[in-house]
Amino acid sequence: MRTIQFDRLYLADGMKVLDLGCGTGRHLHALYYAADMVCIGVDLVHEELLKTREGFDILPDCSGDRGQTYGLTCASALKLPFAANTFDRIICSEVLEHIHDFEQALLEINRILKPGGKLAISVPAAWPERICWKLSEEYHNTPGGHVRIFKRRELQESIENLNMRHMGRHFAHGLHSPYWWLKCLFWHRREDHPAIKAWQKLLEWEILVNPAWFRPVSKLADRLMGKSVVLYFDKPVS
Asked: Which of 105, 108, 193, 194 gives the lowest tally of CB atoms within 10 Å of its CB?
């Protein structure tokens, strides 16, 4: 379930790419196959990194014979253990909404991104997220939960104030919004409620089968009620 559109990042052999807040590796695993690059995953939760490594262990052709490599680091987005101008590309997907001092995280991203590099950031879209908050206090008050709702324009301006250029945006995972609304509505039965289980089967079918006739429905849902908004930037050379 990829949120970032890799074709907007113009990935190429020899690049060094960071997946900041990689979780269990859903983007990092895909980056590994995108080109012969050095792919680094960073997450604050050590258990998530172990799952990411397990994913590499079972994926085919992860020997690095083509020249691609990967690495995993447990670190905070507020103080990243990398030198300035290290990465050609940075992905930060569904991370900033968990961080109180997100401005410091953006400063760190800007510091380690090379001039001429590109950045992709996604956060929950504002109005679908507000419905989740209204339906369930637990949704955003659990440890490690969401601490803010981003307005897309305000986040974009925060990144542009770092002298980055906005290159485009799109919405993603529109069919996931009703799923999360159901989970919030029936929070205490979110694991076994029949409506939630039925919608989960729909999402799994969409991801695994992805029939051509259903893709226009998914794209329309993304535009109307995308769960995530994705922003793309580049860092000027001068």
From this structure: 194
Pick the range with the lowest mean pLDDT from 26-30, 61-65, 148-152: 61-65
Q: How far is Cα 153 from Cα 147, in angstroms, rounded to an integer?
A: 18
Helix (H) and strand (E) counts in the chain: 9, 7
Query: What mean pLDDT comes out for the span 65-84?
Result: 91
What pLDDT is stored for residue 1 in this prediction?
Answer: 79
Distance CA 63, CA 127 (A): 43
3-state secondary structure of 184: helix
pLDDT of 67 higher than 90: no
Whether domain 6-234 has CATH 3.90.180.10: the reply is no
Q: What is the pLDDT of residues 111-122, one digit of tens each?
A: 999 999 999 999
Q: In the chain, what are the domain boundaries?
A: 6-234
Q: Centre a 10 Å sphere on the Cβ of residue 36 and count the other Cβ atoms it contains.
A: 16
- Integer Cα distance of 189 and 27 in angstroms: 30
224: number of CA atoms within 13 Å, CB side? 10
Distance between terminal CA atoms of the chain?
Answer: 35
CA–CA distance, 112 with 125 (Å, rounded to integer): 26
Mean residue pLDDT across the chain: 94
Assign 63 a pLDDT band (cuts: 50, 70, 90): low
- Residue 30 near residue 54, CB atoms below 8 Å: no
Torsion, Cα 31 37 38 44, to 10 degrees, reads: -20
Whether 62 has a pLDDT exceeding 70, the answer reads no
